[in-house]
Write a structure and sequence with these properties.
The complex is a heterodimer of chains A (205) and B (283). Chain A contains six helices and eight strands, in the order ααααααββββββββ. Chain A has 205 residues and is α+β, with helices and mostly antiparallel strands. Among the domains of chain A are: 49 residues, no CATH class; 83 residues, Immunoglobulins (Immunoglobulin-like), CATH 2.60.40. The longest helix of chain A has 26 residues. Chain B has 283 residues and is mostly helical. In chain B, 72% of the residues lie in helices and 0% in strands. Chain B contains twelve helices and no strands. The radius of gyration of chain B is 24 Å and the shape is elongated. The N and C termini of chain B lie far apart (67 Å). The chains are: A alpha+beta (205), B mainly alpha (283). The interface between A and B is large, with 68 and 74 residues.
Chain lengths: 205, 283
């Protein structure tokens, strides 16, 4: 059988030497069934050549795959596949450009963030109030939020290390969430516009 | 056939997801503000109006964080919708005119945080905005006359400090004279800010603006101007008025005074113990 197929290939594809092709033709002609098949295949080959061949449409592979019988994978199978299955990334210029854009934005964000932090000035504040249960620093650097910069208290002494931008800042101390107190250790004060005195903090590099 | 995603490329899908995350982070605060506004005891029309003005302020370049803070704290402190709108419009107006909006925003944030009556915050912010408008041409004039800016004290800071001086009733001429004294001393913008601040503090402490500016100019003529200004501020009414009430409203006044009278002695002791240390200085 394999031998017969080889003979067909030799004849239809016009391969091998002249003597090999003649030997193949003799062998096939001896069998009427094979001889008829050869005639049919020769006619089909001629017909295809006359039509000039056909080009597969771009959707050929997809269409073929779509017609294949498939079962919807279970959730567990999809999860397993997404966790342990391999990824095939199909790149093109647009997707590469999009990813590069996102990476560039992220890098810029990180650089700005670290540069901003590296410019910050560290300031140590201390305050004494043995009866206070909570002391917070609120100022222009935290938009007067009494929850973000809570001082640490030990034996009535409250302290905090602040990171602020270089420049002039104003702040007050918020005691127990009720009283606003000017920092007694500040060297300078400034009216807050409401009759109280904010402490002035000069943060210089 | 079910299509799971419009974007077929995994790379594009990842990029789109990241961009969506960034966009959602930006819109999250607007959502928070919206939810706070919806819970406010305002009528539907009032909520709509506050929301619209907040959007307008955002469009004018006011940071979303500041807008959200004004709206949420304003509601929390019982401000009327028209007062919140006033804060937002004033900030927008300052931004449009290229004036230091941060100073006005800070005044509003500060007042709301300190439980000052919302209407009083509005008038204080109005006053400051007027002074900022007046201060800008004066600062430009002083810069033209040799006042320098630097990384720590830029033009915006100079305008703000000058406006605060004017708010304490210092006149343009007095500020010009202070600048001339600083200039004669070859002082920096830092010394100018310090001098105007000291004069403002003296004027607020009950002295006339003329005597305050004269005292500051005399101090500037001394050997160490910084020390002289510090000594001037240490005068009879120096130090902090610790625990002073932040509002005239009965509730706040009662609250402030009760706390202060309880604690006044301890705080006085704390200052006596430590004196003027280097607290509050960058290190």
């Amino acid at each position: 059988m394999t031998r017969d197929r080889d003979d067909f290939d030799l004849l239809l594809d016009n391969e091998g030497t002249q003597s090999e092709r003649e030997a193949a033709l003799t062998a096939i002609a001896a069998d009427p069934v094979l001889a008829q098949e050869l005639r049919d295949l020769t006619a089909a080959t001629r017909m295809l050549k006359q039509n000039g061949g056909m080009t597969a449409p771009p959707s050929f592979t997809r269409d073929v795959l779509r017609r294949l019988p498939c079962r919807k994978p279970t959730l567990a199978a999809r999860l397993r596949n997404s966790l342990f299955g391999g990824w095939t990334m199909r790149w093109n210029t647009a997707s590469a450009a999009a990813v590069m854009l996102v990476a560039a934005v992220a890098a810029l964000f990180l650089i700005l963030h670290f540069r901003q932090n590296s410019d910050m000035v560290l300031v140590h504040l201390e305050f004494t109030d043995p009866r206070a249960t909570r002391v917070a620093v609120a100022g222009d650097f935290n938009k007067w939020n009494t929850d973000t910069h809570v001082m640490t208290g030990r034996a009535g002494t409250w302290s905090i290390d602040l990171r602020v931008k270089p420049g002039i800042h104003t702040y007050m101390l918020n005691v127990d969430g009720v009283s606003w107190v000017s920092d007694p250790r500040a060297a300078r004060f400034q009216d807050d516009g409401f009759g109280n005195r904010n402490a002035v903090l000069l943060a210089a590099i | 056939m079910i299509r799971y995603s419009i974007i077929q490329s995994p790379a594009l899908r990842t990029a789109a997801l990241l961009l969506a995350c960034l966009a959602s982070a930006g819109s999250a605060s607007a959502g928070d503000r919206e939810s706070v506004l919806q819970k406010a005891p305002f009528s539907g029309h009032e909520k709509q109006e506050v929301g619209a003005r907040a959007d307008a302020a955002r469009a004018n370049g006011i940071p979303a964080e500041d807008i959200d803070l004004i709206v949420s704290r304003g509601i929390e402190r019982g401000a009327r919708p028209e007062t919140i709108i006033h804060y937002l419009d004033l900030s927008s107006d300052m931004q449009r005119q290229g004036l230091p909006v941060d100073a006005v925003l800070d005044r509003i944030h500060q007042g709301l945080a300190k439980h000052v009556q919302p209407a009083r915050i509005a008038s204080s912010a109005d006053r400051l905005s007027l002074k900022l408008k007046e201060a800008r041409p004066l600062v430009d004039e002083l810069i033209g006359a040799g006042l320098t800016t630097n990384r720590t004290i830029d033009r915006t800071r100079l305008i703000t400090q000058t406006a605060l001086g004017m708010e304490a009733s210092l006149t343009r001429d007095q500020i010009r004279r202070i600048n001339a004294a600083v200039h004669a001393k070859q002082g920096s913008s830092s010394l100018f800010v310090r001098a105007v601040g000291t004069a403002a503090n003296l004027a607020r402490q009950g002295g006339s603006n003329e005597s305050a500016s004269r005292s500051v100019i005399n101090a500037l003529k001394n050997g160490n101007a910084e020390q002289s200004l510090a000594a001037l501020e240490k005068g009879p009414d120096s130090g902090s008025r610790r625990g002073s009430p932040t509002d005239n409203s009965p509730q706040q006044t009662d609250q402030g005074f009760s706390r202060n009278s309880d604690r006044g002695h301890d705080r006085g002791a704390s200052r006596a113990d430590h004196g003027r240390s280097s607290g509050g200085r960058g290190k």
